[in-house]
Amino acid sequence: MFKVFDYIYYRWYNIVTHKDVHRDIYASSIVASYQMLTFINLILLASILFGFKRPDKIYIILLAVILIVINWYRYERGFDISKLEERWGNEPEDKKRIRFILLIAYLVVTFTVPWIYGFATN
């Protein structure tokens, strides 16, 4: 599972302007956003299938903070981007483009599903 988040981190790290000093912070925050949206969708799916009450907002915010801290610890404290560069640096352009489109599509879907569910139930 970390391989997927490493890929997301690597791609967003390279997309954020190369002149920006804090692009590692932006990339790790984007990874935390992907993780948080995935978790919210899983909670939503479980609440629909099993009928349990969704957790309060404070728990979701707490989880978001925990994910940001974990990603900060993983990707910013002595993390060597060259390991990811070796793995995905020579990726063919067509494959890179397709994977990036999938990353964007996944982000859009995981963002819109809870939004649509909220409109449908309220």
Q: Runs with pLDDT <50, length 5+?
A: none
- Helix count, per DSSP? 5
Strand-residue fraction?
Answer: under 5%
- Class by SSE composition: mainly alpha
Helix and strand run: HHHHH
Transmembrane segments: 31-52, 58-75, 100-120
Keywords: Membrane, Transmembrane, Transmembrane helix
What tags apply to this protein structure?
122 residues, mainly alpha, 5 helices, globular
Notes on the structure:
By secondary structure, the protein is an all-alpha fold. It has one domain (2-120). It contains five helices and no strands. The mean pLDDT is 86.
Structure summary:
The chain has helices at 2-15, 23-50, 57-76, 81-88, 93-121. The termini are far apart. Helix content is 81%, strand content 0%.
Write the layout of secondary structure elements.
Elements: H1 2-15, H2 23-50, H3 57-76, H4 81-88, H5 93-121
Helix pairs in contact: 1-2, 2-3, 2-5
Keywords: Membrane, Transmembrane, Transmembrane helix
Transmembrane segments: 31-52, 58-75, 100-120
